[in-house]
């Protein structure tokens, strides 16, 4: 097992923008040793998304660091669980859409650690992949809805209209 350090600078000392942040870099204190004895010498640029690092840690079965110590793998599963990965990605998308969570939820450190504890082999999809899945789902469900509407005898719509404090108008309709 190896420990990692997170070198971070909140902002450059001579930077006039107090809100600008520079990227943090995760560097191993000692080289990661993989199962086959090979040394892993990668440095990771942290730009807010940990997908690259998470993928690498899972791929090489390196134990990811936690603030309180190290996560130990609960049990190992077969690495060739491609169907399980896709099902879990779809389940994640369904959870995000049905609970109206922001897509950025999946990039949060706590969510990634939670998913690692549940299944160390699961690679959390990035926002870009979820957006593609939503686009594909929209196309599929749009066609499905068109077929459903063709066979419907009657449709009842509820319309909500409102405006914001800044006089922006909004409206929505949904079938009942």
TrEMBL record:
Localization per Swiss-Prot or TrEMBL: Nucleus
A GO cellular-component term linked to this record: nucleus
Keywords: Metal-binding, Nucleus, Zinc, Zinc-finger
Keyword Zinc: yes
Region (Disordered): 1-21
InterPro entries: ZnF_BED_domain_contain
A molecular-function term among this protein's GO annotations: zinc ion binding
Primary location recorded for the protein, binned into one broad class: nucleus
PANTHER family documented for this protein: ZINC FINGER BED DOMAIN-CONTAINING PROTEIN 39, ZINC FINGER BED DOMAIN-CONTAINING PROTEIN 4
Designated name of the protein: Zinc finger BED domain-containing protein 4-like
Species whose genome carries this gene: Rhizophagus clarus
């Amino acid at each position: 097992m190896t420990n990692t350090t997170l070198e971070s600078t909140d902002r450059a000392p001579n930077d006039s923008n107090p809100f600008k942040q520079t990227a943090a870099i995760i560097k191993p204190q000692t080289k990661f040793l993989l199962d086959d004895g090979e040394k892993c010498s990668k440095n990771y640029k942290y730009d807010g998304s940990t997908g690259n690092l998470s993928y690498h840690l899972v791929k090489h079965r390196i134990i990811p660091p936690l603030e309180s110590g190290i996560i130990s793998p609960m049990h190992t599963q077969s690495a060739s669980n491609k169907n399980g990965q896709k099902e879990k990605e779809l389940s994640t998308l369904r959870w995000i859409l049905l609970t109206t969570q922001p897509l950025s939820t999946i990039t949060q450190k706590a969510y990634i650690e939670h998913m690692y504890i549940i299944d160390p082999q699961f690679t959390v999809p990035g926002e870009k992949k979820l957006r593609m899945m939503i686009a594909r789902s929209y196309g599929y469900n749009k066609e499905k809805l068109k077929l459903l509407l063709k066979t419907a005898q009657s449709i009842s719509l509820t319309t909500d209209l409102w405006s914001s404090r800044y006089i922006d108008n909004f409206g929505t309709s949904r079938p009942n």
